[in-house]
Write a structure and sequence with these properties.
34% of the residues are buried. By secondary structure, this protein is α/β, with parallel strands linked by helices. A six-stranded parallel beta sheet has the order 3-2-1-4-5-6, with helices on both faces.
Length: 196
């Protein structure tokens, strides 16, 4: 059940962002299915897809198949498709929750940037993302290809703004500590000087 706060007609929309090129296997199809299920339980959810098709026919067809489902399911007013954007930071910061349901990721810069900027993240356990945050402390990890778990994760964060704030704070601290870029650069500099 949703909290009383979410049932308030004046409650603001909750903006979900899916950032990534439209490539089969990148997870937009799982995001759309889980969003559809979550939306019928929480009508203030909105989903924005951002990314290109890299000029490839199979990617264009994948995107078109998603748009066709949006029409068939009657959720055109709450799902948006945008092309490539240049200000990724702005997109991430304007979202309430970022989704990443890729079937396989060695390392996800999208997830890393999301955590770095402090936007709550729901990601699939598909390799790299699980190394970037701690489940239910600095992000929400769902089993790979599990639409029910993805739906549950969306609703959990949507109805818990306090948890969103906790994830935001913890994710920024976690990635800034674990991936201290200045420290890494200084380490590389010392290695190079050692061999010169």
């Amino acid at each position: 059940y949703l909290s009383r706060q979410l049932l308030d007609d004046k409650q603001r929309e909750i903006k979900l962002l899916y950032l990534g090129h439209f490539i089969p296997g990148k997870g937009q199809d799982y995001a759309l299915e889980s969003f559809r299920s979550a939306y019928w339980q929480c009508k203030i959810l909105r989903l924005r897809f951002v990314g290109g098709d890299m000029g490839l026919k199979k990617n264009r067809e994948f995107r078109e198949s998603l748009q066709k489902k949006v029409l068939e399911w009657g959720i055109v007013d709450v799902v948006e498709f945008e092309g490539i954007v240049h200000d990724v930071e702005k997109e991430i910061k304007e979202a309430d929750i970022v989704l990443n349901f890729s079937e396989s990721e060695s390392f996800s810069f999208t997830c890393l940037e999301t955590l770095y900027y402090g936007t709550p993240l729901i990601a699939s356990d598909s390799g790299g993302p699980s190394e970037l945050f701690i489940h239910q402390e600095s992000g929400y990890l769902v089993p790979n290809k599990d639409v029910d778990a993805m739906t549950e994760g969306i609703l959990y964060l949507a109805k818990n703004p306090y948890v969103q704030r906790i994830y935001s704070k913890n994710s920024k601290n976690f990635v800034r500590t674990k991936f201290n870029f200045n420290q890494k650069v200084e380490g590389l500099r010392k290695i190079y000087h050692k061999f010169l």
